[in-house]
């Protein structure tokens, strides 16, 4: 077991549909510590940079448009195996494939509008946390 950090985002659909509180409550219930939290409206260039690994994918334009369509909530979660723990809590990318009780199964509208983001590895988590947060000032 290792204490890890991971980046979570409540995406624009999750914010617009009123699920911020339920999502944060779930992380706390599952023993993940919220080390940083901020609500922001992403710019197009911020969203493009965040999802740079998907730049060549056919859904990239749709993804950037969606992620900039309204405010999002950025969080740093910390806990035992936080990266994989968060991915399990989130469920599969497509809510139709996501397990019962996962956030995406409960709240997501579609494969694109799927309520939450979570880093997919410790390496991605480090990059994504640095992208949005300052270790020195934002993590408490
Ligand atoms: P995950 O968020 O589960 O790690 P990916 O990294 O593969 O999934 O994709 C990033 C995001 O891009 C997804 O969460 C989703 O919002 C969007 N996305 C992925 N695949 C599609 C698709 N086929 N059509 C539309 N949007 C997609
Ligand atoms: Mg991913």
Describe this structure in words.
The relative contact order is 0.25. Helix content is 39%, strand content 20%. The protein has helices spanning 12-16, 20-29, 44-50, 60-67, 82-90, 103-107, 122-132; strands spanning 3-10, 33-40, 72-80, 116-118. By secondary structure, the chain is α+β, with helices and mostly antiparallel strands.
Strand order of the largest sheet: 2-3-1-4
The rounded distance between the terminal residues' Cα atoms is: 22 Å
Order of helices and strands: EHHEHHEHHEH
- Which small-molecule ligands are present, each listed once? adenosine-5'-diphosphate, magnesium ion
Structural class computed from helices and strand pairing: alpha+beta
The low-confidence runs, each spanning 5 or more residues with pLDDT under 50, are none
Biggest β-sheet strands, sense, barrel: 4 strands, antiparallel
Mean pLDDT value: 97
Percent strand: 15-25%
Name the helicity range: 25-40%
How many distinct beta strands? 4
Net shape:
globular
In short:
The protein is an alpha+beta fold and 140 residues long. Helices cover 39% and strands 20% of the residues. The model has no long low-confidence stretch (mean pLDDT 97).
Summarize the topology:
Layout: E1 3-10, H1 12-16, H2 20-29, E2 33-40, H3 44-50, H4 60-67, E3 72-80, H5 82-90, H6 103-107, E4 116-118, H7 122-132
Antiparallel strand pairs: 1-3, 1-4, 2-3
The structure holds adenosine-5'-diphosphate and magnesium ion.
């Amino acid at each position: 077991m290792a204490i890890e950090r991971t980046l979570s985002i409540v995406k624009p659909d999750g914010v617009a549909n009123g699920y911020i509180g339920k999502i944060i409550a779930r992380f706390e219930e599952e023993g993940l510590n919220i080390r940083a939290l901020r609500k922001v409206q992403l710019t197009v260039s911020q969203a493009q940079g965040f999802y740079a690994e998907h730049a060549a994918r056919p859904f990239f334009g749709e993804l950037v448009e969606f992620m900039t369509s309204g405010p999002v909530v950025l969080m740093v979660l910390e806990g035992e195996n936080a990266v994989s723990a968060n991915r399990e809590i989130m469920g599969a990318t497509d809510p139709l494939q996501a397990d019962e009780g996962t956030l995406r199964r409960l709240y997501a509208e579609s494969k694109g509008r799927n309520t939450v983001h979570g880093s997919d590895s410790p390496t991605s988590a480090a990059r994504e946390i640095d992208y949005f947060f300052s270790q020195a000032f934002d993590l408490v």
